[in-house]
Design goal:
- The chain is of the alpha/beta class.
- The protein is 40% helix and 15% strand.
- Strand 11 and strand 12 form a beta hairpin.
- The radius of gyration is 22 Å and the shape is globular.
- The N terminus is likely disordered.
Length: 465
């Protein structure tokens, strides 16, 4: 059965809505007309599936999972599937999806939700409560990690999505480069104990390997949540601080914020980072993972466990030698204080919008997509960590390079706040980081951040530490 492909909202509509880019990935925008719902020509039930396409199209691992899931579904002869990718930067995807979810004419039946965005969409009334569905879904009670269930559970205690991937973050490093720079001995693992160890390694690489970029981290507004979570929050949490105070107020001025921004300033003023033209655009994450690391032009990259999906035989940048060339080190806390290391975990979920037309059929499709026979190969191809315990124990899955260590990082994992204002505050974080790497002093950037966040959430909801 031929699958219809429905493209996302037009760029003109998005620009008229005053959107701001705040995400990583492809900066290519969908250019077709509005994403009106389409009825199946045969009169069958139709599921419209909306997800973010990072520019790979049908070659992307997520798209292939959807295709294979539909092709192997025993209900495909009675249910039509419209594939409705949004080709956009991550932040634009969130805003475009919100516009679609709010309109019954454009609302899909199945949507990929970043778990950090889920509280915001729940608060807006965009997502369906899945309680009645999961109570009869046996695997929900026997196979999914409890921590993953929490990530898709709203403040009201209801379930709003089925988690299909999680991840951890750390320091990818090229063993050969660090050995050449004298940071480690040949074949040795690199285990930085604090931020100074990282800066010392960068200094050595710059001196001994001048043609190599010492350090890469997402640093701009264009890489959106990747800048907030993979860079800034990995640093901030490593100081022992968090985004919110114990009384749920946003901390807008603190020593931890300054320490985090000073680290970034050290990276860029010392010439340890890449040229700003490479990191202040939406392709920055792809450039580091698909070009600079495989080509031996990058020593250390602060990034997520999922980037291994790029290097598989079917990935965007096949690199069979990656398992021998690279190591994956824990990100240390700022001064090596307890708990010694830090990682943030996130993930994505399959959610059913409140305005969906085919909810029952959609949940059946979700269950099929998450069946180990369909899901295992897909989560491996995506480079993500499985949300099902039975899949995590699968020999094929556990044998994948770096999978075990990335999963071990979950033991010390922290999470973004489950606060519906986070999706607003995160844009101010990205602006603050970009301003520092572009030359603004950490003090001035923090002052502007304080002003921006107070304006967004109200003076009564911010505090200083």
């Amino acid at each position: 059965m031929k699958m219809k492909k429905v493209m996302g909202l037009s760029l003109a509509v998005v620009m008229a809505a005053g959107l701001t880019a705040c995400g990583g990935g492809s900066d290519k925008e969908a250019s077709t007309g509005g994403n009106e719902k389409k009825e199946a020509d045969s009169g069958k039930k139709t599921i419209t599936f909306c997800f973010r396409d990072d520019g790979q199209g049908e070659d992307g691992a997520l798209w292939k999972w959807i295709q294979n899931g539909y092709d192997t579904w025993d209900k495909k002869d009675t249910v039509e599937l419209n594939i409705a990718p949004i080709v956009a930067q991550e932040g634009d995807y969130f805003t475009k999806v919100a516009l679609q979810l709010a309109d019954k004419k454009t609302c899909p039946d199945l949507v990929c939700e970043d778990t950090f965005q889920l509280p915001n969409d729940v608060s807006a009334g965009y997502l369906t409560k899945l309680d009645d569905y999961v109570k009869d879904y046996e695997d929900w009670n026997t196979s999914y990690y409890e921590s993953m269930k929490k990530g898709v559970t709203g403040a009201d205690g209801s379930v709003y999505g089925i988690p299909y991937c999680t991840d951890t973050r750390g320091l990818w490093y090229n063993r050969d480069i660090l050995a050449q720079a004298g940071v480690i001995s040949e074949g040795q693992d690199w285990e930085p104990k604090n931020w100074n160890d990282i800066l010392d390694a960068c200094k050595a690489v710059k001196e001994k390997c001048p043609d190599v970029v010492p350090f890469w981290c997402n640093s701009g507004v264009a890489t959106g949540e990747a800048t907030s979570m993979q860079t800034y929050e990995m640093l901030l949490y490593g100081t022992g601080e968090r985004l919110l105070s114990d009384d749920d107020k946003w901390i807008v001025k603190s020593q931890g914020i300054l320490d985090s921004l000073n680290f970034l300033q050290d990276i860029y003023t010392n010439g340890y980072g890449p040229d700003l033209s490479l990191v202040l655009n939406g392709q920055a994450s792809n450039t580091s993972a698909r070009e600079y690391l495989p080509e031996g032009k990058l020593a250390i990259s602060l990034d997520g466990s999922w980037i291994t999906g790029n290097w598989t035989d079917t990935g965007a940048a096949p690199w069979p030698e990656a398992k021998d060339v690279l190591g994956f080190a824990s990100m240390p806390t700022s001064e090596g204080q307890d708990p010694k290391t830090i990682t943030l975990a996130g993930g994505w979920a399959l959610s059913i919008p409140e305005n969906a037309d085919a909810k029952d059929e959609t949940f059946e499709f979700i269950k099929h997509l998450m069946d180990p026979e369909v899901y295992t190969d897909a989560v491996i191809a995506q480079g993500n960590i499985a949300t099902r315990q039975d899949v995590a124990g699968d020999e094929t899955y556990s044998a994948q390079p770096f999978k075990q260590i990335a999963t071990e990082f979950l033991e010390s994992a922290d999470f973004r706040p489950q606060n519906d204002k986070y999706s607003t505050v995160t844009t101010s974080i990205q602006t603050m980081v970009e301003s520092v790497v572009s030359g603004t002093s950490p003090e001035d950037a923090m002052t502007q951040y304080a002003t921006d966040v107070a304006r967004a959430v109200g003076d009564d909801n911010v505090t200083e530490k």
